[in-house]
Protein 1
Amino acid sequence: MEKVIYVDHSATTYVKEEVIEEMLPYFNLKYGNASSVYSVGRKSRQAVDEARQKVADALNCGSDEIYFTAGGSESDNLIISGIARANREKGNHIITTKIEHLAVLNTCKKLEEEGFEVTYLDVNKHGLININDLQNAIKDSTILISIMFANNEIGTIQPIEEIGNIAKFKNVYFHTDAVQAIGNIKIDVKQMNIDALSLSGHKFYGPKGIGAAYIKKDIKFYPLIYGGHQEKNKRAGTENVPGIVGLGKAIEIANKNIDAYNEKLNMLRQYCIDKIFENISDVKLNGHPEKRLPGNINISIKGVEGESLLLMLDMNNICASSGSACTSGSLEPSHVLVAIGLGKDNAYGSLRFTFGEENTKEDVDYIVDKLTEIVNKLRLKG
């Protein structure tokens, strides 16, 4: 079988062997319900507590500030709607951006139906917010700012610490969707004045179906799921012990190896960008040229359609994407690319490569060779 080159790590990653090994006993040998009082259950509870501490250590927060969820989307929903509804007596105004993940945007739209007011900040051509726009948007009724750490499509990293400082000064809660940032950026929620944060295990070589929400102690929030007393009465449902264990192990490994990982991905990214621009004309890099995730490349190629590119790359055993996996079923151009000012033609012609630890320079050489052939072929047909 020919080698498949996978460059869509922003969509998902594989699960590392060390993570699988850590999880396996909790499927059959240590299968107890973590909420049970007998010994088999207590072993599961201990594993959950240890994983919770690993997540807390990675973020520099207390373990009692970590709540396990089914993934990043649930964490976004829990934090935004939970904090908004529980603190409505303080105000009804939320600030976010036009380039957030749909888990944030659609939650905000739902809250608007309930009478909340939402300000959607513009971004510049690189996908960065204007700090003055943020400051000017805050008013007496503002209770929450939700701005993603790094964009899942174009990779742009926001000035999170600066946003956190503003939120703290204005006495407004600050949430960041850090699903793409964990494993790529060192995060200290105390230093950055982050009050709430969302993350998902399958973005940093952990399992799918497990995520976590950091919510600063003493912040009042309502649950999304009602039932039992799990997760300190904030997230009902039997604990996914194998998933939680896997998440804990994955974030521990990611934090430990973050510098070497970033160095490799930065090298691959720049090598790939240089080769693309050397070999293909009329290419535009989307997102910030420097303030971006280490493994992210998002380009628009004039005269070609993104879906055709993807299909032909796939025929050559290259797995890439045109944007977020959560919007791949949509016929509309990416809301992120529209927000940074790309016309529909350029937005439809976008392509995203996101590298991971198994990728090599040889992979990049093969990708660029095939991409050049495909673009030339498609332009001739056009």
Protein 2
Amino acid sequence: MGAGGADDIAARLDALLDESSLSDVVAPGELVAVKMHFGESRVTGHVRPRFMRRVVGWLQKQGARPFLTDTNTLYRGSRADTVSHLRTAVEHGFTHQALGAPVVIAGGLRGTTDTMVPVEGRLMTSAGIGPEFVQADALLSVAHFKGHEITGFGGTLKNLGMGCASRAGKLDMHSTTKPYVKPSCSGCGVCVSWCPADAITVGETAEIDDGKCIGCAECISVCPTKAVGIRWNESTDTCQRKMVEYAMAVVATKPGRAGYISFITDVHPVCDCYGTEKISIVPDIGVVVSLDPVAIDQAAYDLVNAAPVADGGQLSDGYSAGSDKFRDLHPDVDPTVQLRYAEELGLGTRNYELVEIA
């Protein structure tokens, strides 16, 4: 674990990587898929290029050949197709010249190309994964830990399961959630431009056609008046479990060849895909590294909950350190479903030892 401000984190990142066991999962000459999130256009909800340059440099010291990668999004944002996605990556400073490694968008021009990977889960038998993740020799997940309106929080499991899935896979995971419009809707129409299924019309208020709705929940994220909600039942639990099974499929293609980094910095209250700037809910905590995707998410979850609340953030006044901040943000979502289910399936363990790197 590394802690402190941005300058301190950058300076200590090399030492953190050197002290970790990540060198066990990469070998000289191998192609390493570095799975990350390049951020929505003009929003800072992503790991900074200055940090990724350190990660790339460290991998190259091991003799590996890294490339930065992500899949296209299900919703209509600045990363919905490969051309727009690459333009956004460049806009945010993720270039070959700056980082020393190329950016490769996985899954083809529109995210429809995938490799079907068998899954020994309880909900599905196969998962559509971006071929680049399957074909790479090794995988390094670099997640930005934050809150999430459907899964409670998004970390390594989400970076793997949701982030490596093809568009069809993303749809499969989200299709159990169905949003509705509250009477407080102003009829502004912002949600219409983000809906990938053309399921929303606007009169005095917005209306969602359940027959067309694919459950991606982007309307929830972009609504400026918080007038869109989800019919909370078991749908969020199912979405989390499907996400875990997709993560399991990704990891299954890399036995002993996957490692995980999680940046607990700029911990925003909702998904980074939300196309507006957000305020962190806690001060920057640091970076954690592990070879266990469950343990690293559990550690990040615990560290955020143990931290004090950031000034000016979304959490309620006086919310104490040690309380579950993600339940405060999303009270109808149980964020531990993904952790418990991943452990049940043998993807990893929720037990961990936290070692701080000086």
Protein 3
Amino acid sequence: MDRLRAEAVRARTEPLLVVDAQTHERAQRVMADPGDLVVTDERLRLVLLAAHPSLAPEAAAALTLRLVLGVSTADLARLFLVSKATMAARLTRARTKLVTAGVAFAVPEGEALAERVEVVATVAYLAFTAGYAPGSGPDVVRVDLAGEAIRLVRVLRTLVPYAVPRAAAADASAGDSPSPTAILDLLLALMLLQHSRRAARTSPDGDLVLLPDQDRSVWHRDEIDEGLSLMSPYRGDLPMQVLGRRARELLLQALIAACHATAPTAADTDWGRIVGLYGELETLTGSPVVRLNRAIAVAQTDGPEAGLALLAGLDEHLLSSHRLPAARAELLARTGRHDEARAAYERAIALCDNEAERTHLQRRLSGLG
């Protein structure tokens, strides 16, 4: 039995020793030639390994978030708009596929690394979203998870100049090909613009503070400036063929975040611009979450009834999300339809597992009288 246990331990550790040896060898090469690529960041190495091309991007993202960043299966289900059982089955299939495919435990290099950039960027963005929209627990914001996602993108940006052939990096405009550089620049810009508001998102008592009520003096202006600077090369009238679909999607989201980040007060927010950007983003993605956000923006420009009209038909796509009934309840309350608003708030509370958000919804319900 002792011998069998020792063999089992050796079988588990040998791949790790191989990777460490390979990394050490690459490090020695980099000392001789700085143009050679080396991946030494441990968390990023694991993310790159999980983002294997044998897995669909959604499966790779879910597996990485669960195994590498520790996001719970329930929170993953909310992020991917599926049931917890469906997500658990998806994770099991992804693990099994990696094992049966005999995937080598090795860090990709060169063009192989470049091919995984978009998947890793998706993983980082989903991790950031999980940090700012925790599906469960007491936190309004999980700053550590969001900060880790930003760090991963920063590290990955330093690798791209070596991973992507220079000609491809300079011009990724063939067809709808993604530009790894643009994807990472715009993703980091979006994250920084959102992350800059973290200190204002909660009250001293830990309660949720919505954007219109936030103290803008505590926003991190240095991060806003960095985000705007990262966006600047892409803010012209570049066609989507130049950026690629994924980068165009990130640019639209970053532009929306910039509208909020640069408004001196809530009253100065350019809601007309935001409505237009959400319209472009919905056309590009067809996402029900984007439709929900566009409805909220339209309510600011054209009134709550117009916003409610856009929410129609979303229930079948966002069955497990508390944000749809919460948004509907808020708009119904503005129209004076308090009985319908009360029912919508009660449904939102029943679906919400985040303690801070549930407390906020209960207060809004009590405020109806």
